[in-house]
TrEMBL record:
GO terms for molecular function: arginase activity; manganese ion binding. GO terms for biological process: L-arginine catabolic process to proline via ornithine; urea cycle. It catalyses: L-arginine + H2O = urea + L-ornithine. Its cofactor is Mn(2+). Keywords: Arginine metabolism, Hydrolase, Manganese, Metal-binding, Urea cycle. This is Arginase. It comes from Pogonomyrmex barbatus (red harvester ant). PANTHER family: ARGINASE. SUPFAM superfamilies: Arginase/deacetylase (SSF52768). One of its GO terms (cellular component) is nucleus.
Length: 340
């Protein structure tokens, strides 16, 4: 091979790495105690086995897999209408500490659930480490119930109410949750994709003026304008560290059937990808949760569709663009044989 061509290729590769060399840390949370359907704990394994790390390395990302969260139950006392609170408290406490460590390692965080209760830990760790955080909660459901309003007692329907300071007075003392103080303002949370909201949750959204865009808003304005309206509401000065908590059931079940609480009429995969592309372009996205993939639900084809959708969402959040990676400045005049 011509030495000049070899040198040109080396420079090109170095520039690509420099341009796209973000550092990412992956945390798996094989946790299913926030709800009652078995299988969601296998979500991290299924997503990893779909070549997640190889797909991310194609984006020239520095990827480190921190493994799965393991925990010991710190408190055996539960309270009324919060199923497995002791497990939720112990798991999310361990996750919060791991999140802080990954951020100290100067890496973006990808947390793979597990059910949506794991976001209690991921967001808590993010807020403790970065303080000024804005959250985009992409979900068919508001997850705003308390133990007094929940019909099921499933904690995966309560994380936003647990995390936000304005709702702290609506809770009794929660054994095992002393490590978690609600420090996130509800003004810093925006919902996208809502279409199954309980009456109490709607009351809370209206009372506190929470930024919330349902599917009818997406139909009216389009996903592009909705994400920018949401960001302008919760981060008007473009200064906050961004956290996206993405429940796979935000997608329509035709796109992602293998999930525990599907609701028809959701986001298309294309809309979900565009949402994540736009948030990535802010350059302030520091944490992503991808939750509620359940490989025990549906056929093998259903599971494959759902896991593939999850991979596409993650890739978009971490820099993949459907136009292809942009050639960095300074290498636009490469000879055609460079690419042969």
């Amino acid at each position: 091979m011509d030495r000049t061509l070899t040198k040109t290729r080396t420079i090109f590769n170095q520039l690509i790495i420099r341009h796209y060399g973000n550092k990412v840390g992956i945390i798996g949370v094989p946790f299913d105690k926030g709800q009652e359907k078995k299988g969601v704990a296998q979500g991290p394994k299924a997503i990893r086995e779909a070549n997640l790390i190889d797909e991310l390395k194609k984006l020239e990302l520095d990827v480190r897999d921190y493994g799965d969260i393991h925990y010991k139950i710190n408190n055996k006392n539960d309270i009324k209408n919060m199923i497995h609170l002791n497990h939720v408290a112990s798991c999310t406490s361990s996750l919060s500490e791991q999140i802080r460590q990954v951020l100290r390692d100067n890496r973006q965080i990808l947390t793979i659930g597990g059910d949506h209760s794991v976001s209690i830990g991921s967001i808590d760790g993010h807020v403790k480490e970065k303080q000024d955080v804005a959250v985009i909660w992409v979900d068919a459901h508001a997850d705003l119930n308390t133990n007094k309003t929940s019909e099921s007692g499933n904690v995966h329907g309560m994380p936003v109410a647990l995390l936000t300071s304005e709702l702290a007075d609506y809770w009794p003392y929660l054994p095992g949750m002393d490590w978690q103080m609600p420090m996130l303002s509800i003004r810093n949370v925006a919902y996208i994709g809502l279409r199954s909201v309980d009456r109490y949750e709607r009351l809370v959204i209206e009372k506190f003026g929470i930024t919330a865009y349902g599917m009818e808003d997406i139909e009216r304005y389009g996903i592009h304008h909705v994400i920018h309206m949401a960001l302008n509401k919760i981060d008007p000065h473009n200064s906050k560290s961004l956290h996206v908590s993405f429940d796979i059931d935000s997608l329509d079940p035709l796109e992602a059937p293998s999930t525990g609480t599907p609701v028809r009429g959701g986001l298309s995969l294309r809309e979900g990808i565009h949402l994540m592309e736009e948030i990535h372009r802010t350059s302030r996205l520091n944490a992503i949760d991808l939750v509620e993939v359940n490989p025990d639900i549906g056929s093998k084809q259903d599971v494959k569709f759902t896991v593939q959708a999850a991979i596409h969402i993650i890739q978009a959040a971490l820099g993949y663009t459907r136009r292809g990676l942009k050639v960095p400045e300074g290498v636009t005049d490469l000879p055609l044989q460079t690419f042969r």
